[in-house]
UniProtKB/TrEMBL annotation:
Keyword line: Glycosyltransferase, Transferase
Keyword Nucleus: no
Gene3D superfamilies: Glycogen Phosphorylase B (3.40.50.2000)
PANTHER family: SULFOQUINOVOSYL TRANSFERASE SQD2
One of the Pfam families matching this protein, by short name: Glyco_transf_4
InterPro entries: Glyco_trans_1, Glyco_trans_4-like_N, Glycosyltransferase_grp1
Organism of provenance: Actinomycetospora atypica
Keyword Transferase: yes
Protein name listed in UniProt: Glycosyltransferase
């Protein structure tokens, strides 16, 4: 890629960039975009009006985030993503300086920009079994390419989607490039993630009571940042499926001793909780595609213990930065925790691996290479320019 290319990065309409507290994709983009700009990419960010990340241009449809609507009945929420995409398409039709669209909007982003006249890279951040009718028959016509956030994620993709894949780029964290004093580990375990069945906080709570270990759960439940916000929402909060699951399966196990839910933590408070944990506990109930919390944990010197599912085996060095047991083998995981096996892991190695593999610069260079490949393929499709006679 020569010169200073202009890339329209579609963050979607759900949360600002950077997010306030929790925000998976938006946090990834807040990490990626500054490094892309340092590598000479001009960024036009399609986001919500409350985004504060410095970019070259920002376009918006909604003044604020629409995450609270995301679990609403489809006939109430369907227009949100459609309106956001329509705004991006209007922008593309009205200018000719955008070299590439880099979409992060689930499902919509894969199909909306195929006929925009601009080559597309669509990053897959989620479970690729979710939309079988879309992913199982998708044809981007040579104009749309995808990448995963781990090799394991792409390996489980339908064949039609894999044919569009250019490879994977692991997620990153600014914490991997940090310098400063290391925290002394305590005896608690931490689960740093949105509270939802896929992340297995109910399993973590059971393991705490079963093994006598202390577990701290940090993250939001649905749109609710903490217990006060959830209580203030009243009975209607149960309309959200994650809230129903939390109230039925996790809340009865909270005792403010063995198991605590501390809500969404930010900045130094969140980092301190993780850095002083004996390990991050990951009893995943799904094939985790990217593992932002995993790379953050390693960057803070905290090893990971959990099930060998999704991307975990490729992010961890077994026996050195993590310990994994077979999927859903709660007995084996309980045995590791009961004996404190995570204390044998190398916290310095966790930080070293994070600096080597999961810095923002490493991720940005990976995407810059993918941009090059997408544009080279687009040039080949167009063919040589013929001179007028």
């Amino acid at each position: 890629m020569t010169g200073r290319p202009t890339v329209l990065i579609d963050a979607g309409p759900w949360l600002p960039v950077p997010p306030e507290g929790y925000g998976g994709i938006e946090a990834v983009l807040a990490t990626l975009i500054p490094e892309l700009r340092r590598l000479g990419v001009r960024v036009v960010l399609a986001t919500v009006g409350t985004s504060t990340l410095e970019v070259d241009e920002q376009i918006t449809t909604f003044p604020g985030p629409r995450f609270a609507d995301i679990a609403a009945p489809y006939n109430r929420v369907m227009g949100v993503a459609a309106a956001h995409v329509d705004r991006v398409l209007q922008e593309l039709r009205g200018r000719d300086d955008v070299d590439l669209v880099h979409s992060h909007l689930e499902a919509w982003g894969l199909v909306a920009y195929a006929d925009s006249g601009v080559p597309v890279l669509h990053t897959l951040h989620w479970d690729l079994a979710k939309h079988p009718e879309l992913y199982g028959s998708f044809d981007g016509g040579g104009r749309v390419h995808v990448n995963g956030v781990s090799a394991a994620q792409l390996a489980g993709a339908p064949a039609a989607l894999r044919r569009h894949a250019l490879g994977h780029v692991h997620l990153a964290t600014p914490l991997a490039a940090r310098t400063g004093p290391d925290a002394d580990p305590g005896d608690h375990l931490v689960v740093l993630a949105r509270l939802t069945p896929a992340k297995g906080q109910d399993v973590a709570a059971r393991l705490a009571h079963r093994t006598g270990r202390r577990v701290v759960l940090a993250g939001p439940v649905g749109p609710y940042r903490d217990a006060a916000a959830l209580a203030a929402a009243g009975p209607q909060a149960r309309e959200h499926p994650d809230v129903r699951w939390f109230l039925d399966e996790v809340a009865p196990l909270l005792d403010d001793d063995r198991v605590r839910w501390v809500g969404t933590l930010q900045g130094a408070e969140r980092d301190h909780l993780v850095a002083t944990a004996s390990a991050q506990l990951c009893p995943l109930q799904w094939e985790e595609p990217g593992g932002t919390g995993i790379v953050e944990s390693l960057a803070l010197g905290t090893p990971v213990v959990g099930y060998a599912r999704g991307c975990l085996p490729e992010l961890l060095d077994e026996g050195r930065t993590g310990l994994l047991v077979g999927r859903d083998d709660e007995d084996a995981l309980a045995a590791l925790l009961a004996e404190g096996a995570e204390r044998t892991l190398d916290r310095d190695a966790c930080r070293t691996e994070a600096r080597r593999r999961f810095t923002p610069e490493v991720m940005a260079r990976g995407y810059r290479e993918l941009y090059d490949e997408v544009l080279e393929r687009a040039a080949v499709r167009r063919g040589p320019v013929r001179s007028a006679v």
